[in-house]
Amino acid sequence: MSVTAPNFYRRPLPDSCVPFASEAGKKYFTESLMEGNANIYFKLAAQFITQDEPAYCGPSSLVMCLNALEVDPGRVWKSPWRFYHESMLDCCVPLEAIKRSGLTIYQMRCLANCNRLNCELVTADEGDESLSTFRADVMRSVRSDTTIIVAGYNRRVLGQTGAGHFSPLGAYHSGSDSVLVLDVARFKYPPHWVPLRTLHEAMATEDPSTQQNRGHLVLSLRSETRPLVVFGLRTTIACNDAHFAESVVSWREFLREAPMAEDADEWVVVCRRFLQCFSGHAMTCKGIEACCRNGTKATETDEMAECSLKICREIRQTHVAQLTMSSAVAALMLAWPYQTDFSKRSTRLHDYSLEWLKSVSEDTRNEIAVLQEQISTMIECTKPVPKF
């Protein structure tokens, strides 16, 4: 005897929400346009998507924003096109884990930072100052075409089914004091208007997985960068990866120790310890392995292959790469966010990396800068959070 699982065709919006396509919704939108409070809508509407998986509201919202802000992923989606898809957002949390549990707002920030976005995370509380901050950020976004707000909120506060959810915001209507929620779960709810105050209340709720309040992300393109093309952190690292956090703590403790008297001995010890801590976390991007091993071009475009070859060559020539016998590990070590006021050993490594960066190409400097951003973000997001 077969058992048919329950299935649904959409959900009716509660009374607190005004459907975008309703007469009232159209009126709100027309008036918001006239007020200049829907500029960002057009960028977002051009890239509006339906989430690929039931728990993909975070990745889908972020993909929508990345494509709306015209970020080049530097990776082919379907040949020959480079275009963001949820499957590409694998730099902070394994995709299988996202399918099971979704994302927290801190993991969303990690993904945004790793994909060349400036990302400000603003947690919400019940105070008037928090509401005023949210309102100001919304107004700044809807009047621009370069800044996007993604709200993280509890659906139940809006009278909707479900719990935690992420949605980009596309417009603001002053007459009703409402924001346009571009819900990526379009199989469930259509785009709709929600009172700004009510949405803020839904954001000022605790996420059980983090035991912290939800909030909103302010996203904009980090200009004058290009995506990582050669090196990175392994995609199996999750934002609550205890092993990575323990490796960071171990490395910090080592940096606090007094350096060896002889430089040659010091370099051997430093590289050995970094290799022990992070060899399992260093990654060479797909298709570039051959380039890093023997200097042959990877199967990319000619321009990308030349860029990859140059970066590999310049990192492979460093003293660090020669001692670690790994360009990927050397790249992580050179990109590590050393602080000069942390310890003598940390200062030395900081100065070495800084001096080396002066001698390499712009492509390699970009690679190290983006990799450093990824490392810094993962350090901040892992639990327990190591503090420098």
TrEMBL record:
GO annotations under biological process?
cellular detoxification of cadmium ion; detoxification of copper ion; phytochelatin biosynthetic process
* An example molecular function term from Gene Ontology annotations: glutathione gamma-glutamylcysteinyltransferase activity
- Record's Pfam families? Phytochelatin
What span is annotated as the signal peptide, if there is one?
none
EC number(s) per UniProt? 2.3.2.15
InterPro entries documented for this protein: Papain-like_cys_pep_sf, PCS-like, PCS_N, PCS_N_sf
Q: Any idea which UniProt keywords this protein has?
A: Cadmium, Metal-binding, Transferase
- Domain Peptidase C83 per the UniProt entry, residue ranges: 3-224
Which Gene3D superfamilies does this entry report, sorted A to Z?
Phytochelatin synthase, N-terminal domain (3.90.70.30)
Name of the protein this chain belongs to: glutathione gamma-glutamylcysteinyltransferase
Species source reads Mesorhabditis spiculigera
